User: Which sequence fits this backbone?
């Protein structure tokens, strides 16, 4: 933990236990070396034209001052309809929804609103990097449940062991980053039963809900049994509409919990960008064919990157959701994931994210790196060309070290 220490008496202890984001830092490293950035998960292509036009129009139409803090009413109404139609979750636009500055804020605000210092929160590992600092800042005591490759599903006994009457919450992320897995319906049912037995809350990050391949489907845990009474569902606009820079997402939760999230959100950010909230209504009005197109194009991109990585000698954990591929790099003979990620950036010209950033126990991710494929086909093809030389160059490096 001390490796993250900022040595200054005026810095609070709560920021001494995690570094700045490794994922986001790899974008800086990629830019520095002019490498193709397959690290951070953001598209290198434009969002749908309709919503870009709607954003420009919203500014011209005068939506330039604060919106209602917990979201512009027209957006909350559109979100409520979407939650009903797609997630099968009933909400009242005025009582159950908070529009936030991304799923990032939604998760932090949700934990700050519900978790007291010392409360145990179950977190599956590997996890999306943010969940670590989210736990530290909210004072949660994380209880990690491993997801073992290649399937990345939790073991029933270990999951049961992690819960007890003092468990405050579980963070669920399905479809998952970095695993690229959806939790099966029996797994979600088990989590739901454990929450109900132990009076725990489920905080569920579903921002990849529209990116599921191989005929699998998305289930929102809030729809199981009485889980709507104890679930905060987080969905976002960043990934589905390729607008990661707009910083828009939302929570759906029972009224008292929503009231608590509103308070944190209000004093943390006041609110999300008003004109972009208006444009997000246009996003939610896109026809269902948009989501089919999104899934099919990402499915194709998955194929391009998978085949490039496999040809280059990576052992890939084939994802069936989201837009990431976790890989095992043991065969390349590197000391750790950081050494490999920097080498790949400099020598091959492609940047991944070191796998240890998804683990609390860094040892577990030391021989893994994650690649992201929300990129134009031409970008992925260019990356494939560069990656083709990986195995030979890595072998040459090992030979040079031995000599
Ligand atoms: N949650 C998960 C699981 C993610 O993978 C990401 C981004 O990579 C985020 C949240 C961030 O979402 P947002 O851009 O809405 O803050």
Assistant:
């Amino acid at each position: 933990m001390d490796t993250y220490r900022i040595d200054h008496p005026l810095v609070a202890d709560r920021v001494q236990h995690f570094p700045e984001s490794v994922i986001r830092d790899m974008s800086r490293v990629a830019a520095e070396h002019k490498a193709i950035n397959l690290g951070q998960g953001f598209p290198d292509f434009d969002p749908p034209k309709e919503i870009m036009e709607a954003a420009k129009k919203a500014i011209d139409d005068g939506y330039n001052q604060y919106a209602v803090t917990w979201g512009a009413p027209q957006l909350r109404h559109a979100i409520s309809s979407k939650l009903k139609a797609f997630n099968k979750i009933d909400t009242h636009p005025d009582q159950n929804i908070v529009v936030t500055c991304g799923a990032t804020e939604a998760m932090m605000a949700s934990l700050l609103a519900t978790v007291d210092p010392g409360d145990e929160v179950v977190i599956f590992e590997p996890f999306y990097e943010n969940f670590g600092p989210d736990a530290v800042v909210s004072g949660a005591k994380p209880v990690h449940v491993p997801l073992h490759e290649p399937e990345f599903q939790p073991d029933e006994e270990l999951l049961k062991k992690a819960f007890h009457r003092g468990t405050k919450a579980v963070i669920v992320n399905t479809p998952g980053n970095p695993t690229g897995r959806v939790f099966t319906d029996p797994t979600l049912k088990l989590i739901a039963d454990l929450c109900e037995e132990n009076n725990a809350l489920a905080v569920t990050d579903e921002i990849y809900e529209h990116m599921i391949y191989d005929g699998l489907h998305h289930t929102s845990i809030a729809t199981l049994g009485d889980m709507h009474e104890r679930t905060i569902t987080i969905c976002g606009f960043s990934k589905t509409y390729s607008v990661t820079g707009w910083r828009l997402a939302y929570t759906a939760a029972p009224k008292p919990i929503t009231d608590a999230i509103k308070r944190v959100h209000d004093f943390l950010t006041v609110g999300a960008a008003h004109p972009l909230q208006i444009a997000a209504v246009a996003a939610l009005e896109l026809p269902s064919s948009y989501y089919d197109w999104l899934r099919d194009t990402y499915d194709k991109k998955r194929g391009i990157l998978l085949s490039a990585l496999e040809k280059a000698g990576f052992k890939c954990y084939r994802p069936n959701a989201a837009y990431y591929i976790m890989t095992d790099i043991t065969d390349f003979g590197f000391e750790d994931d950081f050494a490999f990620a920097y080498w790949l950036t400099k020598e091959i010209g492609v940047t991944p994210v070191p796998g240890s950033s998804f683990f609390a126990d860094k040892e577990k991710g030391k021989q893994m790196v994650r690649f992201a494929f929300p990129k134009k086909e031409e970008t992925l093809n260019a990356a494939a060309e560069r990656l083709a030389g990986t195995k030979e160059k890595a072998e040459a490096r090992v030979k040079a070290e031995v000599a």
In short: The domain at 2-46+289-402 is CATH 3.90.1150.10 (Aspartate Aminotransferase, domain 1). The mean pLDDT is 96. The chain is about 40% helix and 15% strand.
